[in-house]
Amino acid sequence: EDLWAFNEEPLARAIAASKLPVVSAVGHEIDFMISDLVADVRAATPSAAAELITEGVFASREFLGRSLGRLLHLAGEKIGLAKREFGHISHRLGQAHPRRKLFQSCQRVDELSATLHRLAKSGMERGVNRLQHCRKSMELSRPDKVVSQFQNRLSWLVERVNAESAKRFNAHRADFEKHLDKLQLLSPDNVLSRGYSITSDFDTGEIVRDVSKLEVGQKLATRLTRGTVISTVEELDD
């Protein structure tokens, strides 16, 4: 009942007519209101909405911090260079017109300091302008369109992956069946099925290829298409 106001028609019409992007984050993740349907994007919780809105701002602040760090590093190098130059000039003050040399060196240091201040100020202004530009870009962007683009891209990638997977599977299956046919042609069972038999020594299993290798009384095993015949050599005929 506390959240029923987000189901009222006037509020829904006001959200739909808003020219600025609206993020709806009412209650908890399980709560679902009419305002969620008309808003540009729905966040599961108020905390998630805050994170979604401020993500770009934090990124801009991080960029500004890095830029300022680089600017300060550059300023430090410039100041160090000025100090070294000042020290070098001071070392030569024993020559003619020392006061004039010192005055020129002081002027040079002042000029470098002023330049560094201008650089620092300019860098800060650019950082602030970039941050403001990022804020305007966030206000003008439509989160629902961004989400829709990502969803379309994801669907396209899924279709590509499925098609490529099916293509590779069919190629591998055809290659497997081709090799299987070759193996079946070379299989001893295929030879036996055509009426041939294979005879080997019963004890050693060595295949008999020459009758001269046999002896009377030797025990043999003859393999047929179905079953094996055990026999003993009684007579040899070359």
Describe the secondary-structure layout.
Blueprint: H1 9-17, E1 23-24, H2 34-38, E2 41-42, H3 46-91, H4 98-140, H5 143-186, H6 188-192, E3 198-201, E4 219-223, E5 228-232
Parallel strand pairs: 1-2
Antiparallel strand pairs: 3-4, 4-5
Helix pairs in contact: 3-4
Folded structure, characterized:
By secondary structure, the chain is mainly alpha-helical. It folds into 3 domains: 4-141; 142-186; 192-232, no CATH class. Helices cover 64% and strands 8% of the residues. The protein has helices at residues 9-17, 34-38, 46-91, 98-140, 143-186, 188-192; strands spanning 23-24, 41-42, 198-201, 219-223, 228-232. The strands form 2 sheets. A 3-stranded antiparallel beta sheet has the order 3-4-5, with no helix packed on it. Helix 3 (46-91) packs antiparallel against helix 4. The radius of gyration is 45 Å and the shape is elongated.
How many discrete domains? 3
Mean pLDDT across all amino acids = 78
Low-confidence stretches: none
- Derived structural class: mainly alpha
Q: Strand tally, please?
A: 5
Strand order of the largest sheet: 3-4-5
Shape: elongated
The helix/strand order is: HEHEHHHHEEE
Distance between the termini: 107 Å
| Major sheet summary line | 3 strands, antiparallel
Number of helices: 6
Into which percentage range does the β-strand content fall? 5-15%
Question: Which descriptors apply to this entry?
Answer:
238 residues, 3 domains, mainly alpha, 5 strands, two-stranded parallel ribbon, elongated
